[in-house]
Amino acid sequence: MRNKYKHIHRCSGFVRFHCRSERHRPSTESPSRSSNPLHHLNATIAAVVLLLFGGVKQVNGDSLKYEVVGDTVTIKDCKETASGPLAIPSIYEGKPVTSIGDWAFYGCTKLTRITIPDSVTGIGYAAFSKCGSLKSIDAGEGNTEYSSEDGVLFDKNKIVLIHFPAGEGGHYTIPDGVTSIGDHAFIKCARLTSVTIPDSITLIGALAFRDCFGLKSVRIPDSITNIKMGAFSSCSNLTSIIFEGNAPFSFRVDAFSSVPEDAKIFINPGATGFGEKFAHLPVIILKELKINTFSKIDSRFTISFESNSGISYIIEVTHDLKEWGEIGKVQGTGSSVKFTDGREALFQKQYYRVKMAG
Description:
Strand content: 35-45%
Largest sheet: 7 strands, mixed
Helix content: under 10%
Number of strands: 30
Structural class: mainly beta
CATH topology of the largest domain: Leucine-rich repeat, LRR (right-handed beta-alpha superhelix)
CATH architecture of the largest domain: Alpha-Beta Horseshoe
Oligomer: single chain
Mean pLDDT: 82
Distance between the termini: 18 Å
Radius of gyration: 26 Å
């Protein structure tokens, strides 16, 4: 794996696809009842048949629509008027709630928190997509299939990131050890401004970051081998895509569809699988990050380095080479740029590094 950083030490100073638009959600309100006695007779007969022979039954209750099949219950839908925190019950009519259906909470924009009971062992496709106010999806420690960390939903072993709540924003660092970003995982997370994708990730799912309007740049680590349909589509401010390695083995050409016209893909010298264009975007070969000068003794640490136009660079500092903290950002110009650390030195020894933002 390539070394992504330049380190400096100073003494005595101081990163089933199912394309679907906004759906029409079935009404969860009961239809008006007829005053016709025959209507009541037919309803009674239907109820008796269900009681005698069982089968599938869909029931509207509280804010949820339940489907009872045999001895198990699935959450099929949620009223779009549902708001605030919602705890999915573990039992319904004496039967365990074992699954959440495809699209079950899709478009429920007023929900702020969803709690998943230990009884749930299956979650369908795009179950929590486009819930714009959702701050947390919580799975209990006793759940055998799912887990959560800081309100983000994962599988039990934290191998797959299933869903990031769309009401959260700012920067998010995907935990090390996660290998897959699921379909729709970050869809319409409009407040997400940046994301760090670790080297453990190998797959980015379909529509994973679609409509993340706050993303301006993203780094694709060289561990990524598969980027699926529309993964970063319609990210209207995404202009800088940095690939740290070769082109992914499996890649959909629409992964970056509907991004800004001035968006570019940046690659390292010697990277393979890219042409003059990749995914319909121009490809720019990065200059090697070359440190020109830096001060060693001055009370204000200063560094100058060669930069690439259109790339932002982050300056980080540490005293133990373990915990790094960002102290500044420099915009590349295509030539040499300079950064000065105006802070007083906190430790006898400090280390600095420069990395491309993403």
